[in-house]
Amino acid sequence: MAGIYIHIPFCRQICYYCDFHKSASMSLKDELFKALLSEIALQQDYLGDEIIDTVYFGGGTPSILSAKEIQKIYEKLSTFFTLSKGLEITLEANPDDLDDKYLKQLSNTPINRLSIGCQSFNNRDLVFLNRRHTAEQAQESVRKAKKVGFNNISIDLIYGIPNLSVSDLERNIQTAVELDVQHISAYHLTIEEKTVFHKRQAKGEFEEISEEESNIQFQLLIQKLAENGFEQYEISNFARNKNYSRHNTNYWKQIPYLGIGPSAHSYNTTYRQWNISNNKTYIAEIRKGKIPFSKEIIDKKTKYNDYILSSLRTMWGINLLVLEEQYSKEMKDYCMSMAEKFINYGLLSIKNNSLIITDQGKFVSDNIISELLFVDT
Ligand SMILES: C[S@@+](CC[C@H](N)C(=O)[O-])C[C@H]1O[C@@H](n2cnc3c(N)ncnc32)[C@H](O)[C@@H]1O
Ligand code: SF4
């Protein structure tokens, strides 16, 4: 089993918080599209004989692709990889792209899951974040997607936005719940370097919300979503009726994946590699038949750290048998010795031979994880 990620590095407008690789100029779009098709062929051996059970179009803004272009990428993938019959194939989409015509066309492609970037249902927040759509458009896009037959829809929300009050967040959550989607990803706003927000913050134009306020908002999110049948299967991800994102769950379970496109990452259990984050160079190199990437061999400690980092954020936790059998007894003992104080504080618990973060532990998950990691002395 394996996954394929396709990166579409274009956005019609740049949001002030975002540091993903993207360009607001569409001048290279057609050339880049051709390069993506070529890279799929060039990478045909990367995953060996693995069956592909998830494909994810991420960005940037994959919904700038026409349905025809999506179909072409899918056909190219089917030529060079074995796609599973029950393939999950997700398209990240911006609400303003999802009009009736486009949605109808999308419903005739193999896309069977949409991840819609609503972010907030409050127009003041959307302006602050520099989103292209209104709160009404965000809701409408979900309703329209359901109407044409999409029955596996996720929405992205951002909380912890300056000036977002607890009651605003409560209204946002309520709206999300009423849209009756299968999945919600909710991220705390982070201020990333080289973003507009970073510059504004440096100039003192706004302040991030306090840790106390962050915790109140996170608690509200967990509580309200749980009351409405959403299971928090990962710190930022909530699903109804076990509609987990297969693609992300595979990442967290260290299942191999191939990333196509500029800045896309790949992982095959022995090494990780990442393509160059420059559209022009990416296209030029692919034209020469070369994939412009850097790579890193994953040694045992890095592998252990990756496992701890991703699994502890999930409800399945760290499987102690896996840790002993696939890593080593020393690593399992190390993990348990570091975990002991958190177990005593009630921040971690052991269930079915797995080390799991408790509800209380979720508020300090980053601190717990960092203490469980292996650091070279
Ligand atoms: C790569 S973006 C692509 C989605 C799509 N282009 C859109 O904007 O709707 C994936 C998601 O990451 C989240 N995200 C990106 N940067 C973030 C930040 N600095 N803080 C919090 N969430 C962020 C947003 O919720 C966004 O929808
Ligand atoms: S959040 Fe989405 S639309 Fe906004 S800049 Fe990032 S990738 Fe583009």
Describe this structure in words.
The chain is of the alpha/beta class. The protein is built from 14 helices and 15 strands. It has helices spanning 29-42, 67-80, 100-107, 123-129, 135-147, 166-178, 196-202, 211-227, 246-252, 279-287, 300-311, 320-327, 329-345, 365-372, and strands at residues 2-8, 51-59, 82-93, 113-119, 153-159, 183-188, 231-234, 237-239, 257-260, 265-267, 271-275, 293-297, 318-319, 348-351, 354-357. It has a 9-stranded mixed β-sheet with strand order 7-8-6-5-4-3-2-1-9, sandwiched between helices. A 3-stranded antiparallel β-sheet has the order 10-11-12, with no helix packed on it. α2 (67-80) links the parallel β2 (51-59) and β3. α6 runs parallel beside α8. 37% of the residues are buried. The mean pLDDT is 97. Bound molecules: S-adenosylmethionine (SAM) and iron/sulfur cluster. The site of iron/sulfur cluster has 11 residues, from loops.
The pLDDT mean sits at: 97
Distinct ligands: S-adenosylmethionine, iron/sulfur cluster
Uncertain regions spanning at least 5 consecutive residues: none
List the total number of helices.
Answer: 14
Distance between the termini: 36 Å
In spatial order, strands of the major sheet run 7-8-6-5-4-3-2-1-9
Number of strands: 15
Helix residue percentage? 40-55%
Helices and strands, in order, run as EHEHEHEHHEHEHHEEHEEEHEHEHHEEH
